[in-house]
Specification:
Blueprint (H helix, E strand, L loop, with lengths): L16 E14 L2 E7 L4 E7 L5 H8 L6 E10 L7 E12 L16 H6 L1 H4 L3 H23 L3 E2 L5 E2 L11 E4 L2 E5 L4 H11 L1 E9 L12 E10 L3 H22 L1 H6 L4 H5 L7 E3 H10 L12 H8 L6 E4 L12 E2 L2 E5 L1 E6 L4 E8 L4 H10 L8 H8 L5 E7 H9 L20
Parallel strand pairs: 3-5, 6-10, 12-13
Antiparallel strand pairs: 1-2, 1-4, 2-3, 4-5, 7-9, 8-9, 10-11, 11-18, 13-16, 14-15, 16-17, 17-18
Helix pairs in contact: 4-6, 4-13
The chain binds one RNA strand of 75 nucleotides through strand 1, strand 2, strand 3, helix 2 and strand 16.
RNA sequence: UCCUCGGUAGCUCAAUGGUAGAGCAUUCGGCUGUUAACCGAAGGGUUCCAGGUUCGAGUCCUGGCCGAGGAGCCA
């Protein structure tokens, strides 16, 4: 029996007979020659079937294959200049696992399709070359993120999905029944992360987060994945440096390991190669001045809109670090700048090329009295935060951290138009299926 | 929630208020090197839904449903 081989490894079997297991990607026919394209999730290879070289039933079996029919193919690997991957398979035998009926052919053809059709068939769309490339890059980014923190002595501490209260306002929370009570799906592991940081020093959580925002833009999902590090004794500058290193490290890893996928996506890698520390840094004050000079209607004290973020980041080739936003637009737990209490010791990192904010975080409020006052000012339910206030009662220290949205990072690194392609099954404002 | 655009064959799209059409997909035929192959033929329609105007509506009007892009919103 010839060995069962993954298509990405066929080059190691040149001249040998192998078995491939996969699906028919496309079939071209030229008289007594058949050119079936096989895919197996690791790559695509063209088979060649010469009529007089194989038994008639093998030729007919291949000729009758429909797109995405599943097969086990036996053939001899041959190097060929004409093949895009450098190798072809001279088919010897084929075992058809399932032939898709021509009466109900595979719906996604190699031609153009609309967004709605593709999203309705997301479970099948994942099989196309482009989507598999994105899945590969996403996997690499997640692995790079985890390696980054693991190599630096961070402990992964999982934070809950069900939460009893909001981190911030309640308008963007998904409410669920929790027996006789109400619970909410988490927006962020932030508060629990702070408890974990006091236990292990350096921590991170990584999981799905949920926001019931009625946002219908290319940057928004209702369910998205976020990695959130938190470090005891860290200050704002430490958080900025950590975010900068993390982003540079992730981009470098993708460039190292996922060149073929980036090529499939036609991503210009020269732009990614420029993502090296140090990233440009500016204060919110400076950012507002720049925006004003570019014609934005931003006023000091307001948050940036999507177009503002694009305006700001477009003049830089690296991610842009913006720090010290007005406290009024930031969460209650952000530490104020002792030198200027009206601004918070917080930081956002904006991706280049208009991909917007990918990191948000900063230094947390370590002082008990100050935190109590802010909770009162925001009219938050004090009882729900008693456990959080304990962290300021028992050995409070300065600490800082941030959250990085995985889907926006994937969209940026892959150069995608919309975050809906960055996650296998996106959840958006009018999309809960499949 | 608001603004703009759209919904016609399985898919992507055409069609001055006057006989609903093309490419792809499917089926059949041709081609010994095809690369989203090509060439020829065939089958395939409740024009999103409900009303209305008109001799006549895919097209115009009203309402609704669904989708896309954007705004607001959004660590």
């Amino acid at each position: 029996m010839p060995p069962v081989v993954e298509i990405r490894r066929v080059s190691e079997y040149a001249g040998q007979e192998v078995i491939l297991q996969g699906w028919l990607y496309n079939l071209r026919e030229s008289g007594k020659l058949l050119f079936p394209l096989f895919r197996d999730g690791t790559g695509i290879i063209q088979g060649v079937v010469v009529k007089k070289a194989v038994p008639p039933e093998v030729f007919e079996a291949v000729r009758g294959l429909t797109q995405e029919s599943s097969v086990r193919v036996t053939g001899k690997v041959r190097a060929d200049q004409r093949a895009p991957g450098g190798f072809e398979l001279d088919v010897v035998d084929v075992q058809v696992e399932q032939r898709i009926s021509p009466e109900a052919p595979y719906p996604i053809t190699p031609k153009d399709h609309g967004v709605e059709f593709l999203m309705d068939h997301r479970h099948l769309w994942l099989r196309s070359a482009r989507q598999r490339a994105i899945l590969g890059v996403r996997h690499e980014i997640i692995k790079a993120v985890r390696d980054f923190f693991d190599d630096r002595g961070f402990t992964l501490v999982d934070t809950p999905i069900f939460t009893p209260a909001a981190c911030e306002g309640t308008t963007t929370l998904f409410e669920v029944n929790y027996f006789d009570d109400k619970a909410y799906l988490t927006q962020s592991g932030q508060l629990y992360n702070e408890a974990a940081a006091m236990a292990v020093g350096k921590t991170y959580c990584f999981g799905p987060t949920f926001r019931a925002e009625k946002s219908k833009t290319r940057r928004h999902l209702t369910e998205f994945w976020m990695v959130e590090p938190e470090v005891a004794f860290a200050r704002l500058d430490d958080a900025m440096a950590l975010g900068e290193e993390l982003i540079a490290s992730v981009v470098a890893r993708v460039l190292e390991k996922r060149r073929p996928e980036l090529q499939t996506l036609e991503r210009k890698v020269d732009k990614l190669e420029k993502v090296q520390p140090p990233f440009p840094r500016m204060s919110y004050d400076e950012a507002v001045k720049i925006l004003e000079s570019k014609g934005s209607e931003i006023q000091w004290g307001g948050d940036f809109g999507g177009t503002d973020e694009t305006l700001l980041s477009e003049s830089f080739e690296r991610p842009l670090i913006v720090h010290r936003y007005p406290s009024q637009v930031k969460a209650f737990y952000m530490a104020p700048d002792p030198a200027r209490p009206e601004v918070a010791l917080c930081v956002d990192i904006l991706a280049p090329e208009g991909y917007g904010e990918i990191v948000g975080g900063g230094e947390r409020m370590a002082d008990l009295a100050l935190l109590e006052r802010r909770i009162q000012e925001e009219k938050l339910p004090r009882e729900a935060f008693e456990w959080y206030l304990d962290l300021r009662r028992y050995g409070s220290v300065p600490h800082a951290g941030f959250g990085m949205g995985i889907e926006r990072v994937v969209a940026w690194i892959c150069g995608l138009e919309h975050v809906r392609e960055t996650i296998p099954f996106p959840r958006m404002l009018y999309r809960l299926k499949p």
